[in-house]
Amino acid sequence: MEQIKKKRKRYRLGMGILMGASLFLTAGLVLFFIGYILGNGLPNITWELLTTGPSYLQERIGILPDILNTVYIVMATLILVIPLGVGAAVYLTEYATNKKIVSVIEFAAEILTGIPSIIYGLVGMLLFSNHFGTCLMAGALTLVIMNLPTVMRTTQESLKTVPRSYREGAFGLGAGKWRVVRTVVLPGCIDGVITGCILSVGRILGESAALLFTAGFAHAINDILYGLSAPGATLTVALYVYAKEQGEFGIAFAIAAILLILTLIICLAAELVQNSFRKRRCI
Amino acid sequence: MKKKQFMENSIHGIFFMMGFIAVACVLLITVYLIISGIPAIGKIGIFEFLLGREWASTAADAKFGILPFILSSIYGTLGAIAIGVPIGFMCAVYLSKMAPAGVKRAMQLAVSVLAGIPSVVYGLVGMLVLVPAVRTIFGVPDGAGLFASIIVLAIMILPTIIKMSITALDAVPKEYEDASLALGAAPVETYFRVSVPAAKSGIAAGVVLGVGRAIGESMAVMMVAGNGANMPDSLFQSVRFLTTAVAGEMSYASGLQREALFSIALVLFVFIMIINGVLNYFLKREKV
To answer: With contacts defined as CB-CB under 8 Å, which chain A residues touch B272?
Structure first.
């Protein structure tokens, strides 16, 4: 009896210690990453760095082109992926009657989520870059395929919360299917679309392997229309090139700090958006 | 009336097409990878390709054996799982069952940040902190290699493991735990001997998802693995993974070398599909 008691006590203590250690390790890792990157990166962020392009003549490195490229590619991707993702979600929840078809589409979306970005990069290169050249648009199209499942899933989830009775009420008043979708269903999926956008932006900001071979790594300042048809590096790709190929660690840290701050903002925004929508739904 | 019917039908058709874009993309990716990956395997010979121990793509007498890459990918993933899963699992049990609400929320946010950090940032920190640390601690000439990659991958799969495990553990019915507590089991015993077994499919799904993430990661690993095409016969060997083999040579490859890179991508894709199948199995069991 005494022995069993001792054994149980030891078990509880051991598990407690393991849990505590793992928790501290994880929390410590996050704090270390934030502290180390901001500590090394923030001092390197200067006004000149943010507002100029790189120039060999003046021996200066600026990341304005990379910032612009990132903005362009985010915009181009979102403009394409949102209608497609929302359309797919609407089809799945409103139109599809065949369970088999639904499960095939959902399975395909699951596969798309699991494919590594380097494979997207290769296929994007074959599909897009080989036809109209290495350019931001080819990168954006590749990212559209990557982010399609995300937007689709978040929209689908928010559509499921639109009460059945709303739709039935609209049908009862004599509305056609499209009218119901347009006036009752689509307004209800705004929160899903916003969540999907935030998650997609996070993923696009962090993406590098899929863009290396599709969007290239040039650093020229362009306006959006010309920029989309020209090769260009996003912030992550620029970070990789500066750190791995040119050994410019100060610049790399500055970019890393910018990316980290954006990641923090995106995480907080996603959390806030989800919470506020959850609250609204409860009322 | 007829016009309205026509419009409804065409809108239905448009939504149907949008719904099938995901399926079309999967088919397109599969077909493109197979078409571009098969020829080189045919030219090199499937056994020489998969089991060849030497990769010398630019030599005069070019050798295309990808066994080193396959083994490195497998060892790297297994190592990452061996380190990342216990830590993530323990964290998840604490956060799901014992943590105060505030701690849980704060840690969940921290974990999302960890998941959101771009992989090149992991690579950068790994390159500047981990690689020198490995070199001095273990006294090896170059810290970049299999061991550094395992650590980076373990950190990168932590969020996946923690999130999936928390979701699975949160879903365990409270009655199970109440029954165990009422029988005199301590809370810690209850969580590990009742809740965890009840959530094991979900946790397993998290592990499989982690495997998928680890085997597919390329940029972070590229910055810390050393990228030598060696057999991974020591923990500190400079190695190349399936992903980094493709990413490293793609920009300048041509001819058979380029085709062989597509074949490597095809092999990676097959791995991912197998992992997807296993994942689906666990997720289905979770639902039942």
So the answer is: 114-116, 119
